Amino acid sequence: MRYDLVIFDNDGVLVDSEPISNRLLAAYLTELGHPTTYEESIRDYMGSAMHRIHDLILERTGQRLPADFDEVFHRRVFAAFERELQPVAGVTGVLEKLAVDGVPYCVASSGSHARIRVGHRTTGLDRWFTEDRVFSSEDVGRGKPAPDLFLYAAERMGVAPERCAVVEDSPLGVQAAVAAGMDVYGFTAMTPAARLVGAGHLFADMGALADLLV
Length: 214
Hints:
This protein has nine helices and six strands; from the N terminus they run βαααααβαβαβαββα. By secondary structure, the chain is α/β, with parallel strands linked by helices. The protein has a six-stranded parallel β-sheet with strand order 3-2-1-4-5-6, with helices on one face.
């Protein structure tokens, strides 16, 4: 394989969480007096850390979200994950192949460690991701689109950025990976290819990823 490390985004790449979380985010923002459709949530917030939601609402409305916004939102999301969440189709086969081939991999997500763990436990992906393979925007000062998280993951895994492949499905994530100097594989199952500007490789079938990485 041409890479020494494969870095996966989590939401929408490993776990099929984006439809769930964006549905709930749009509903909660609307409930708080910031009318938001599901499509707008996908467009504006998909792939971002929680602080970006706060920043955009403040910038657009001059109002701050409630102090307990993150806590309430995560409680709703985690409950929905327990009921509905599934792994992205084909991703288990990709992880199996990487493990058999001895290719290091990890996850670098805008989500919190708690969110990542709930999703992995619910879908059975926790067997593939020990603690030393899990990195969150909580670990760095700036989330995506800043490159900090991907650079941090590469450093912790002991791999130079130029030897890393990143698997992303959001424009913010692609921007972060490009800024980190890494090759980007853009997953277009939910995001139109035209929005993943900067990704050197585009694919719609997660099951095909292992062959693309060779």
